[in-house]
Design a protein that fits this description.
Strand order of the largest sheet: 2-4-5-7-6
Helix content: 25-40%
Strand content: 15-25%
Shape: elongated
Number of domains: 2
Largest sheet: 5 strands, mixed, barrel
Number of helices: 4
Number of strands: 7
Structural class: alpha+beta
Length: 248
Amino acid sequence: MTLSPSIRSLILPGLLTVLALIVLIGLGTWQLIRLAEKDQQTAQIEASLSAPPVLVPSSSEWAALKPADYDYRRVSLTGQFQHDKEALVFGFISVGNRGDTREGFFALTPFVLADGSTIIVNRGFVPQELRDQSKRPEGLIQGTVTLTGLMRAPEKKGSFTPEDEPAKNLFFTIDPLSIAHARQIEQAAPFIVDADKSGPSGQWPEGGHTVVALVNNHLQYAITWFALALGLAGVFFVFATNRLHRDP
């Protein structure tokens, strides 16, 4: 059987269209898989936020920890603060109900456990006018204390994030290992703990400012890929129909 010129001319475009459809449908399916994973992660985080705190992982477990397994896990830990090694990370918090923000710093303080290892604790927000520790002596808790909070993965430095200035005690990324290096701490955890809000109102640093926000655009992405696949199929159908109509 001899194929007409019009049909032969559709073989290559048809193969390319099929390959493109496989790619687009594959991308859409992958986004649906990621959507299910993100929904599961969100459910785990919500359950963790309302669950009683568990003991923070010991230093022997740190090397095997993965952020996806511990991020937002509620924990308790006992130790002592090293206020002389506090690191201030520039940031802001939301205030009021209109989306207003207040600039200041997050006070990240080394917290030494009984075994001598250290966890960098984000004690919370400090207004710019209280940057100097001498202006907030009531917040410099001494002795052995037990606190609760949320385990958090290190922040990743963005392309436009300024360089840290340890000499000025000014940091821009909440990275526990970078802070530990700047403060000459040898055995530091690869995660931080965001402290819960504790103490009387007006005592600084003020904890409890963790923002739980997971970006979940996978459904929109899936719809986009499937729509592109449908559109491509429609374009090829019109193209093939017009070409066949010209077949003598």
